[in-house]
């Protein structure tokens, strides 16, 4: 007996569903596209307008303040390397994409994470959704995004946003849930209101976990932004994708180097932001 | 000791037949207990519920330190949490300053907790991201008191516990004993009438512990506060408490002063507990003396004037000193210039054993005064 095959019907259903969305949600998706690419262009303009050495020095100073003198000098030199291998514009554009996607993701993930931490019932709904998002291969988000938002940075932004949400949401919920019992008792015995319990007791204890989530989201965004080169994200992702297609090994290594530099700088900055928060609690 | 004028008969905390049953079927179990008189083991069998606190009634008066002594699992930590409704009773009433806690709105309950009942925890629970001063001011911060004012009050509370120099440090920089002092200062800052102490000194080493016990008692008496003090250590209860309640399996077995409990233990369980406790400083003259009436009955002509005199609340240790000084002659116990009782060396030895002087037991020991 042969296995019944419903793939044709299934595919047809998915296609027609997508078509329906495209037809009926056109104005919505156009607006979303305009909004996303508008935000992205704004951020890219802010970082891209000053000369490259100004940005390199600024980030170097930031690194010096937050991490240390050695890190500050190294990150400034590394950014200059990005400029001297002819990839400054791409580096800036990637940075803008990652920052925009991460900030948007945090705006959604942290409040939802707090909710999930406080309301176990909501957590039970969100958890399988996050499992789904995290287990599907990231490429999957690109196709429907292309269909709905078209080729360009808005699609890359959306796909990056989707993968950046789960870590921050999960770790925020975890942090909120893990408030030690004796401090909950302290709050109650001191006569705190619900808001005071949250801001004065739960949130400070959750902060290290939330900051770890922010860092994780940032790293996920970096991973996705390269993949999103396929859909015309611009920046280093697209350079790498182009280099792979034309087997231009030298160019692909240059772009990869720039990605590594950018990732390491942002990772260390985010980590030290998390540590300085923890440092206050010691 | 008391320096403030306070009405010591005013009841601040009144527990009336309070029960707490834990478990999913707690409600049904409670009803079965009320209507069928089910016991602890039966409740566990039939409803798989645990009886935490069983029909406890107690009163804490103004200015009094009330100790609740029990081993782990006796329900003492549950009981103290019923007093500020961190745990809601399954049955019975808790009145704080005459107000039934279960009848209060959430806002009123917060008010009672913030202003009238302070609490100190075994784990101390100092917020690690705040300085000692900020921790101490926490209660006032919650009440919305301005920064300058609450820090001023907190500084004063820290001064009372001897930690003025540590106010800008973080809790992790302090030793365990100092942290517990901050916990006490935090509870005092909101100036509550009642302080609940949940095994505050259990985790400290013996020397620091004794020191804190003495400091705590002195401070509480000085400020005229009432305290409910939970401990698993009878010696600590005796050192600190004006009255002691002994708790076992959720039931209060006996309530009384240290002297009453040591001299008249309610059952074998209590007797076993007090067996190792030294009577020297616990048992007082009024418990070991023979009332003067009994003496004058037996020996018509008595001359007490040449006996060494002492007072009703002199302890056995002091009495032994006096007796030796008087060459083992009896002592005369004097109250307001009148001799009310006689203590012989035999009475003292009985006292050391923990046997009080009632007329029957001591009658055979009566002997004419030389």
Automatic annotation (TrEMBL), chain A:
Residue ranges constituting the ABC transmembrane type-1 domain according to the UniProt record: 91-270
UniProt keyword terms in alphabetical order: Cell membrane, Membrane, Transmembrane, Transmembrane helix, Transport
Main location as per UniProt: membrane
Membrane topology classification: Multi-pass membrane protein
Bilayer-spanning residue ranges: 42-64, 71-89, 95-118, 139-165, 217-237, 249-266
Record Pfam families: BPD_transp_1
PROSITE patterns named among the record's database cross-references: ABC_TM1 (PS50928)
A GO CC term assigned to this protein in UniProt: ATP-binding cassette (ABC) transporter complex
Name of the protein described by the UniProt record: Glycine betaine/proline transport system permease protein
Organism: Pseudomonas poae
UniProtKB/TrEMBL annotation, chain B:
GO BP terms in the entry: amino acid transport; glycine betaine transport; response to osmotic stress
Key words, A-Z: ATP-binding, Cell inner membrane, Cell membrane, Membrane, Nucleotide-binding, Transport
Presence of keyword Cell inner membrane: yes
A GO cellular component annotation in the UniProt record: plasma membrane
PROSITE patterns: ABC_TRANSPORTER_1, ABC_TRANSPORTER_2
Family (UniProt): Belongs to the ABC transporter superfamily.
Compartments where located: Cell inner membrane
Annotated protein name in UniProt: Quaternary amine transport ATP-binding protein
Enzyme Commission (EC) number: 7.6.2.9
Mode of membrane association: Peripheral membrane protein
Enzyme class: translocase
Subunit field text: The complex is probably composed of two ATP-binding proteins, two transmembrane proteins and a solute-binding protein.
InterPro entries in the cross-refs: AAA+_ATPase, ABC_osmolyte_uptake_ATP-bind, ABC_transporter-like_ATP-bd, ABC_transporter-like_CS, Gly-betaine_transp_ATP-bd, P-loop_NTPase
Nucleotide-binding among keywords: yes
Ranges of residues in domain ABC transporter: 33-274
């Amino acid at each position: 007996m042969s296995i019944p095959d419903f793939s044709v019907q299934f595919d047809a259903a998915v296609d027609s569903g997508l078509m329906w969305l495209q037809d009926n949600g056109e104005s919505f998706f156009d607006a979303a596209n305009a909004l996303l690419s508008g935000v992205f262009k704004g951020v890219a303009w802010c970082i891209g307008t000053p000369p490259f050495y100004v940005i390199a020095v600024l980030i170097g100073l930031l690194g010096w303040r937050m991490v240390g003198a050695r890190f500050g000098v190294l990150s400034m030199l590394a950014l200059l390397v990005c400029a001297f291998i002819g990839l400054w514009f791409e580096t800036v554009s990637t940075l803008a994409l990652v920052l925009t996607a991460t900030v948007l993701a945090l705006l959604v993930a942290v409040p939802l994470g707090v909710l999930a931490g406080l309301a176990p019932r909501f957590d039970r709904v969100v958890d399988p959704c996050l499992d789904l998002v995290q287990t599907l291969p990231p490429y999957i988000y690109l196709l429907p995004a292309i269909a709905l938002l078209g080729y360009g940075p808005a699609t890359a932004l959306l796909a990056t946003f989707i993968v950046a949400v789960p870590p921050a949401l999960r770790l925020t919920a975890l942090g909120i849930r893990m408030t030690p019992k004796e401090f909950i008792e302290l709050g109650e015995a001191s006569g705190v209101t619900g808001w005071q319990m949250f801001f004065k007791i739960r949130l400070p204890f959750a902060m290290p976990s939330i900051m770890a989530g922010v860092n994780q989201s940032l790293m996920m965004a970096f991973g996705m932004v390269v993949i999103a080169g396929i859909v015309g994200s611009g920046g280093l992702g697209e350079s790498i994708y182009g280099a792979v297609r034309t087997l231009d090994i030298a160019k692909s290594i240059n772009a990869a180097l720039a990605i590594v530099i950018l990732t390491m700088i942002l990772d260390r900055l985010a980590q030290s932001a998390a540590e300085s928060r923890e440092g206050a609690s010691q | 000791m008391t320096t403030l004028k306070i009405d010591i008969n005013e009841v601040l905390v009144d527990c009336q037949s309070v029960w707490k049953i834990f478990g999913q079927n707690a409600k049904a179990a409670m009803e079965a207990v009320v209507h069928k008189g089910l016991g602890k083991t039966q409740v566990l069998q039939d409803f798989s519920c645990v009886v935490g606190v069983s029909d406890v009634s107690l009163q804490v008066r103004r200015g009094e330190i009330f100790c609740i002594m029990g081993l782990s699992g006796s329900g003492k930590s549950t009981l103290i949490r019923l007093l500020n409704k961190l745990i809601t009773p399954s049955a019975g009433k808790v009145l704080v300053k005459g107000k039934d806690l279960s009848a209060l709105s959430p806002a009123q309950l917060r008010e009672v907790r913030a202003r009238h009942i302070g609490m100190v925890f075994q784990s101390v629970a100092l917020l690690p991201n705040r300085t000692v001063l900020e921790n101490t001011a926490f209660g006032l911060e919650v009440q919305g008191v301005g920064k300058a004012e609450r820090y001023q009050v907190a500084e004063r509370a820290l001064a009372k516990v001897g930690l003025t120099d540590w106010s800008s440090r973080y809790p992790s920089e302090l030793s365990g004993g100092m942290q517990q002092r901050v916990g006490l200062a935090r509870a005092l800052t909101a100036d509550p009438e009642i302080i609940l102490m949940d095994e505050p000194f259990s985790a400290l080493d013996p020397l620091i512990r004794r020191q804190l016990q003495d400091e705590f008692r002195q401070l509480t008496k000085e400020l005229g506060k009432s305290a409910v003090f939970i401990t698993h250590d009878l010696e600590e209860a005796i050192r600190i408490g004006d009255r002691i309640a002994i708790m076992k399996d959720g039931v209060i077995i006996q309530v009384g002063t240290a002297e009453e409990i040591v001299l008249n233990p309610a059952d074998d369980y209590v007797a076993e507990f007090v067996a190792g406790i030294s009577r020297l400083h616990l048992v007082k003259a009024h418990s070991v003396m023979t009332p003067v009436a009994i003496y004058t009955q037996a020996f018509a002509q008595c001359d007490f004037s040449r006996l060494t005199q002492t007072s009703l609340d002199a302890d056995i240790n002091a009495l032994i000193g006096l007796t030796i000084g008087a060459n083992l002659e009896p002592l005369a116990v004097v109250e307001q210039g009148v001799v009310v009782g006689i203590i012989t060396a035999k009475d003292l030895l009985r006292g050391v054993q923990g046997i009080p002087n009632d007329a029957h037991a001591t009658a055979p020991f009566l002997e004419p005064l030389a």
